[in-house]
TrEMBL record:
The keyword Membrane applies. InterPro entries: NADH_Ub_cplx-1_asu_su-1. This is NADH dehydrogenase [ubiquinone] 1 alpha subcomplex subunit 1. Pfam families: MWFE. Accessory subunit of the mitochondrial membrane respiratory chain NADH dehydrogenase (Complex I), that is believed not to be involved in catalysis. Complex I functions in the transfer of electrons from NADH to the respiratory chain. The immediate electron acceptor for the enzyme is believed to be ubiquinone. It is found in: Mitochondrion inner membrane.
Length: 86
């Protein structure tokens, strides 16, 4: 006995929505990461280097090969003030 096509419509819609959601999430991650793959298991050193690269290039995942830092980098320091107890 064949399955009526009316019962397959919701399954097709659900499958299409999962596909659209997955493709959208992948596209957003690709765009937010500067076109590079997602980084896994970041430690303190990796985060520190990403912050330095962001301060050098203005982009979180950007890197530069220039030997001389751009003007203004010497006053752009990563040190944060300590949090006070209230």
């Amino acid at each position: 006995m064949p399955v009526p096509f009316e019962t397959l419509i919701p399954y097709v819609i659900i499958t299409a929505m999962f596909g659209v959601t997955g493709a959208g999430l992948s596209g957003i991650r690709h765009y937010a990461g500067g076109g590079k793959k997602h980084r896994w298991s970041l430690d303190t050193w990796d985060r520190q280097m990403m912050d330095r690269d962001r301060r050098l290039t203005g982009v979180l995942r950007g890197q530069t090969d220039k030997a001389i830092a751009p003007p203004g980098f010497e006053v752009n320091q990563p040190w944060r003030g300590e949090k006070r107890f209230s």
